[in-house]
Write a structure and sequence with these properties.
Blueprint: H1 3-15, E1 56-59, E2 65-68, E3 75-77, H2 80-88, E4 95-98, E5 114-115, H3 125-130, E6 135-138, H4 144-152, E7 157-159, H5 166-180, H6 183-203, E8 210-213, H7 225-232, E9 236-237, H8 252-258, E10 262-266, H9 281-284, E11 288-291, H10 293-297, H11 304-315, E12 344-346, H12 365-376
Parallel strand pairs: 3-4, 3-6, 4-5, 6-7, 8-9, 8-10, 10-11, 11-12
Antiparallel strand pairs: 1-2
Length: about 375
């Protein structure tokens, strides 16, 4: 793994502490377009928009009314999830700049675009301005100060709100389709997306297994699209009510008390080890699942792929026999699942590589420092 790819993952780790009160990033502004307000069960954005003409104005996550005067010929996207959405809309030819590297390598032709990020994952403002884009699409993790600096340079910048649900994905597809004049294609993408969600729901097991989502000691709670992905896939997220942030730390106490039957991790994260994990039903029965890091971490239409992986896995859930103890007997070594085929189920999807993709907020500085120091020692240069 290259240093830069690792730094992108580490940045995601720090950001998973989410939108903390008083943080440097803006929470979604009430009434801002593209911020979800509907449950994923509603068919958001499936119908073609009646008016797809220009100019078009929408209020972004900073509370700014952003106007796109005409269909943009040159678009810069500052998040992998935004790039994925543009590719799904078949509007990739408009994209002249994006974060290149492992988080977007799965998008055909993406690595031929100009990289608009620095080595630490922050926005390279000079590079963005130099591309002379007609429209810049910024994720919630981009600080408002950076957005203001780009606007002061004369650029049209729309900051997307925090994607708290699967419905936010379809809202974003509709929004980007409107900005690029691809309203009909956006309606098709959303119709297919919602249709796939319906199929996944229909296949969900009646007896929903308890699921722990684990990513570098963090997890996803209620109010995130990853939580909805787990629940829609037929699982019961054991961390739904944990913490006061969308992506809190997953404590040993919660794991021991709620005893997950499945552990799901993105491909960039290792499996947790030791107690209490070793005594959970998931580890006793080797029920762990690895899903594509990019597709589960990026709030975009392709999240349905890891959702299918989860649905198939959850449908095959085995139960620990009632006469089999799940605690580790005294004087014995706790079992830890080996990361090999048969022990850890690795789902194969259309995206490759590792990385993260545009989820919100700054966490505690100590978390980032610890993650950087601990992980950089393992990096191959």
């Amino acid at each position: 793994m290259q240093v830069r790819g690792t730094l992108s993952v580490l940045a995601m780790v720090a950001l998973l502490a989410a939108v903390a009160p008083g943080g440097a990033l803006a929470a979604p502004t009430a009434g801002a377009d593209g911020v979800d307000a509907a449950p994923a069960s509603s068919a958001v954005g499936t119908g073609a928009q009646n008016d797809c003409s220009f100019p078009v104005s929408r209020t972004d996550a900073t509370g700014t009314r952003v106007t796109v005067s005409e269909a943009p010929d040159r678009v810069v996207v500052l998040a992998p999830s935004a790039a994925q959405t543009m590719w799904e809309l078949n509007e990739e030819d408009r994209v002249v700049g994006l974060p290149t590297g492992p988080t977007t390598a799965y998008l055909e032709g993406s690595q031929n675009r100009t990289d608009v990020t620095n080595r630490d994952g922050t926005v390279n403002r000079e590079q963005v301005v130099g591309l002379e884009p007609d429209l810049v699409l910024a994720p919630n993790i981009v600080p408002n100060e950076t957005v203001s600096q780009l606007r002061d340079a004369g650029l049209t910048v729309y900051k997307v709100g925090f994607g708290r649900s699967l419905a936010a994905i379809t809202a974003k597809v509709s929004l980007f389709g409107r900005f690029t004049g691809a309203c009909d294609r956006a309606a098709t993408v959303n119709e297919e997306f919602n249709g796939t969600l319906d199929e996944i729901r229909a296949d969900a097991p009646e007896d929903r297994p308890r699921v722990a989502y684990f990513f570098f000691n963090f997890t996803a709670s209620e109010g995130t699209f990853i939580h909805e992905a787990i629940e829609t896939g037929g699982g019961e997220n054991i961390a739904a009510d944990v913490g006061d942030r969308p992506y809190p730390r997953l404590s040993d106490e919660v794991v021991a008390d709620r005893n997950p039957q499945w552990v799901v991790r993105p491909s960039s994260s290792s499996l947790p080890s030791g107690e209490p994990w070793s005594s959970t039903d998931a580890y006793v029965l080797d029920q762990t699942l690895t899903v594509d890091d990019n597709l589960i971490s990026q709030p975009g239409p392709r999240v349905v792929e890891p959702m299918r992986n989860m649905s198939e896995a959850f449908a095959s859930t085995r139960q620990v026999p009632t006469d089999t103890p799940t605690s580790t007997p005294a004087g014995t070594e706790p079992a830890t699942p080996t990361v090999t085929e048969g022990a850890d189920t690795t789902a194969t999807t259309s995206a490759g590589g590792t990385g993260s993709g545009g989820q919100p907020g700054f966490g505690l500085v100590a978390v980032l420092v610890a993650a950087v120091l601990g992980t950089l020692a393992l990096v191959r240069r």
